[in-house]
Amino acid sequence: MSNNQKKQLTPVQQEYQALQKQREIKRPVVKNCIKAFLIGGLICLFGQLIQDFYIYYFDFTEQTAGNPTVGTLIFITMLLTGFGVYDRIAQFGGAGTAVPVTGFGNAVISPAIEHRTEGFVLGVGGNIFKLAGSVILFGVFSAFVIALIKTILIRWGGL
After folding, report:
1. How far apart are the first and last CA of the chain?
2. Per-residue pLDDT tens for 68-112?
3. In whole angstroms, what is the distance from residue 113 CA to residue 1 CA?
4. pTM beyond 0.85
């Protein structure tokens, strides 16, 4: 809080601010960053192993193995979320589980699991894309706009 704002507080409010600051729980920021880095790195390592599996056993190239790798990671995340395992990993790893594509898979399936008691149509179908729907919408729209700009530049720009 700035000094100007502190001057405007009554003595009781200033005393409360001091008490609040004294009792505030200190967050282990460095520890949380390290855990997020390690969990996110392990997820990416697992994704790399899956990609190498597709390249080695199914004759994909590095460029073509990306899509099935992402699909596999999302599928595994959805299974782990359904069994309650991914939530435990996320509690430990924090943002390390939200940043990779696995966070997207978790965001898609979690509302569906939460609202399954309302039925398949209104519960699961109505809520499955509640959080991830905007990501899908803006991702597809952005890809369309970029492809349109690229097409215009190539066709009429001579690039």
Report:
1. 54
2. 999 999 999 999 999 999 999 999 999 999 877 888 888 888 888
3. 42
4. no
